[in-house]
Structures are given as C-alpha cells and as structure tokens.
Amino acid sequence: MTSRESLMAWLDDYVLNLRILSQRYLEADCIEQRAALLAPDWLTINWYDSLWLFELEGIKASGYPEVLDAGNVAEYCTTSKFAEFASRVALNAADSDQAAWNTAWPQLPISVIELDPRFVAFRTIHDWIVLSARVLADRSDCLEDLERESYSNDRTTKERRDPFTRPIQTEDEDGEPVGLLCGNLRERLVGGRASYIGEPGYLIPDWRQVQRPWEALRYFHCRGLILPMEFRYGPLREQTDPRLARFELLRPEVFSTYVSEVLAKDQPELSEAWRDRPAEDVRHDPRFMAHKCGFDTQIILHIAREAMTAMESEIARDDLEVGLVDSARLRALEDGEALYRHLMELGRETTDSEVDDKPEKPN
C-alpha cells in the first residue's frame, strides 16, 4: 500500500463518518439539499450541526482525492473561494429568497467571512487535505507510520469505493445509531488522543530535520483540537497560554510563542529558537498549519458564542425599552455571562482570580 493509498484510506473513513452525521442530524449529506444553511448571516441559522456538512463540502472543494497528486501547487482555502462556493449553490436554489444570496456573498467583507463558523469548518478541513498533499510531495517518508497502521488494520485487501457516493446507513438492523456517538470526530482524523503525546524531535525549528513528520503533524493538529480539554485541566491552571490572551484565530507569532513558552518551556535552546523565528517563516511551517487547522475549529466556537452573547445583549437592550427584560439581566448579558457559563459547562472551574483575569475580548 503506497503512502497516497494509506492517506486516502484514512480520509475516506472520515468522509463516511461526516456523511453519517450529516444525514443523522440534517437529513442531508450535500449542501444543495440544505441551501437554507447558506444564509449570509450565520447567526440566523442552526449553524452548529451544519458544521459537519460544511466540512464535507470543504473536502470536496479541496479536489480530494486528485489533489493528493498536486503536490506543492495545491492551494489553501480563501474567503473568496468560500464565497464563490456559497454563491454558486445559492444561485441554483429553488427558493427565490435563497437564490438572492448569490449576490450577497461576494459583497461580504473578508473579516466577516473569516469569523463565520461555517467558513472555518470548510477551510480547516480543506487546508488539512491540501497540507497533506504538500507534505506528501515534499517529504516522501512522511507517511511511513500511517502505512504501517493501514497494514495492521488490513486495509490492503479492500478495493476503494468513492466515499461521497457509496450507500451509507445511519442505523443498524436493530435501529441503533451507526458511527460516532460522542467525542470529537476530528480527533479520529488524526488518530485519537494518542496523537496528543509529543516528542522533542517534533519541535526542531527546521521542519526539514523532523524525523517523523507525519506524527509531528498529527501531534500539532491534536494539540489544537484538545482546547476544551485544556480549558478544563490546563495549562491554564499552571501557566498562561499565549493562544488565549485573546479569543481569536491562530496567528503565526502566537503559535511560535505557544511553542516557545508552553511546549518547549523545559528546553531553553528550542524555546529561544522558536521565540526568534520570523512570523513569515512560521507561517510556512507545516506544523503551524496543522495546529491552526485544529485550533481554529475549537476557538471559533467560543468566538461564535461571544458574538451570540453580544446579539442577545442587543436584543435584550431593545426589550428593556419595552419592559420585556429587567436591567439586572441586561447587565449580566453585557458582562459575558453566557460565554463563561459555557466554559463552566466544559468543566473549567472559573475561580475568583480567573474571573479577574478574563481573556481580553475580541474587538
């Protein structure tokens, strides 16, 4: 089994799980069946469950599986690509109101699309596919571990069937749900929590010197995906996490600081080397992209809840004028009560000192 075939077997399983979840919760596994999910304002739709569907569309838009042969010319996703995708689907919608969104999407500011949870779901899986294609072309040894895992799972004897079109089931013969019932599906994409375990060699500043590149990418991707777990157990309880100084999508300089101060904190030479890396150099490091693909999927949920809280506060302010909400409730909303209640639901114990040091809110 070649590296390409091993990677396709891994990703095909992910596509099938996305289709099952989309069918189970949305009764659709293609966006054309749910064009209403493309309303330009994501706050007006039930966006959370739709993220699986947008991940599925992101994989299609990447050009998978042919993109795996594109190598370094494979292109990462942009806001304009997502706007074109949304505009095209809207244009063909049967509903005239939805068809009118065709002209609305290209007019949305880049800053608005960037913080749309649907775009982030679409972009991060799209870019993970493109990253895989680029690394596959750049590092011929990158998937040796994945190849061995594929052999151990006896995938070598199976003939590939198109995961986008093959029949699927959401329930078994007894009516029990099929597929994932809990947990983060993205973790399965990178091999589960086992990928959380890192090695010092993964942190070598020069990507070309990393001895186990595929495992390093899985590690950095998973470190981003476990953000809710870190809210609950640390590193916030032990140290400051530079990624959470503000609730924002990951930037290269924040990533290098995170590696320097958190991952390499006990290795002075590595820590200093990462601290001194230029942002543009970090931007082109596959490990940054791998981490961003994971981290952005989690932090956008907090950014989205912040936006929803702000909207609720604005509605409450209007209702206050007509006597539908009291001033105490309004003050609670303005203080971000809803967002911090959500963090509590994740299991983070917000102590008095933590409340005093709340992360700075995005502008």
Write a short abstract of this structure.
With 363 residues, this protein is mostly helical.
Structural overview:
The chain is an all-alpha fold. Among the domains are: 1-164, no CATH class; 306-356, no CATH class. Helix content is 56%, strand content 0%. The chain is built from 18 helices and no strands. Helix 1 (3-26) runs antiparallel to helix 2, helix 1 (3-26) crosses helix 8 (144-152) and helix 12 (252-263) packs antiparallel against helix 13 (268-275). The longest helix is centred in the C-terminal third of the chain and has 36 residues, at 286-321. Residues 332-363 have low confidence and may be disordered.
Beta content: under 5%
The H/E string reads: HHHHHHHHHHHHHHHHHH
The overall pLDDT average reads 81
Number of contiguous helices: 18
pLDDT < 50 runs, ≥5 residues? 332-363
Characterize the biggest β-sheet.
none
The termini sit apart by 50 Å
Shape: globular
Task: Kindly name the structural category.
Answer: mainly alpha
Alpha carbon gyration radius:
22 Å
Helix proportion: 55-70%
How many strand elements? 0
Keywords:
18 helices, disordered C terminus, mainly alpha, 363 residues
Summarize the topology:
Blueprint: H1 3-26, H2 47-61, H3 79-91, H4 96-99, H5 101-104, H6 110-114, H7 117-138, H8 144-152, H9 185-189, H10 213-225, H11 227-233, H12 252-263, H13 268-275, H14 279-283, H15 286-321, H16 327-334, H17 337-345, H18 352-356
